[in-house]
Amino acid sequence: MPTRAFHGQRTNALLSWVAVAIVLAVGGWALLEGLVHETLFAATVVAIALVPAAVLGSKRAALPWEVTVAAVVPLLAATIAPDLWTRQIVLYAGAAALALALTLEVHGLTEVQFERWLAVAFVTMLAAAIAATWATLTWAQDLVAGTSIIASNAEVMWLLIAATAAGLFAGVCFDLYYRGFPGEELVSAPVDGIDEERFAIRSGIDDYPSLEERLPVSATVQWWLVQTLRAGLAAMVAYALLTFDTGTVTNVAPMLAITFIPTLLRRRYGLPFDSGLVLWITLVVTLHAAGSFYIYERSFWWHNVTHPLSATLVGAVGYVVIRSLDELREEIHLPPVLVPGFVVLFVLSFGVFWEIGEFAQDIVADYAGIQMPLAQHGLDDTMTDIVFNTLGAIIVAVWGLPYLTDLTDAVTDRLEEWGGLNR
Question: Which stretches are transmembrane (predicted)?
Answer without folding.
Answer: 12-32, 38-56, 63-82, 88-106, 118-137, 157-178, 248-265, 277-295, 301-322, 334-354, 386-404
